[in-house]
Amino acid sequence: MFALCFLGISNTYAQKIYRGNSSYSSDIVCTYNQGKVYRGNSTYSSNVIARFDGTNLYRGNSSYNSDILMSFRNGKIYKGHSMYDSDVLATWRENKLYRGTSPNQSDVLFTYKDNKVYRHNSSYQSDVLLTTSSWVHPLILYLILFP
């Protein structure tokens, strides 16, 4: 579930994302700092997993269009740099991420509220999948949970 780790877009300080309801340094899944996503608590260049520019997520430290893994436009997460409806992986609406373009409550992948990512449509503490140190872009949360 946590094979790939990516974080949000704020560049003012290193953001952390933790497993479950934790805030312990031993439970840090990824660190995001100045547009780069690192494994665990690292900020070493050898541990860069991806680079995020706010719209496109690139493999490693790349900035080539051919290395775009996913993109976010108009509330939709697309495979690669595509804009075709058939390539929509998920849709972001009202702090919930839905499978594909579905508007159905049964297709909620996760709910993001108060820096907590909850399983499906839940808001129970027992259903916290991830805890973030600050707001994290929905594309990044999708990638962490569905690599």
Write the layout of secondary structure elements.
Layout: E1 15-19, E2 28-33, E3 36-39, E4 48-52, E5 56-59, E6 68-73, E7 76-79, E8 88-93, E9 96-99, E10 108-113, E11 116-119, E12 128-132, H1 138-145
Summarize the structure.
By secondary structure, the protein is mainly β. 5% of the residues lie in helices and 40% in strands.
What is the SS-derived class? mainly beta
- Kindly state the number of beta strands: 12
Instruction: Classify the beta-strand content into a percent band.
Output: 35-45%
The span between the termini is 7 Å
> Based on CA inertia axes, which overall geometry fits?
flat
Portion of residues in helices? under 10%
Radius of gyration using CA atoms only: 14 Å
Number of continuous helical runs = 1
The ordered H/E elements are EEEEEEEEEEEEH
Instruction: Give the integer mean of the pLDDT values.
Output: 89
* Low-pLDDT sequence parts: 1-11
Largest beta sheet, briefly? Answer: 12 strands, antiparallel, barrel
Numbering strands along the chain, what is their spatial order in the largest sheet? Answer: 1-2-3-4-5-6-7-8-9-10-11-12
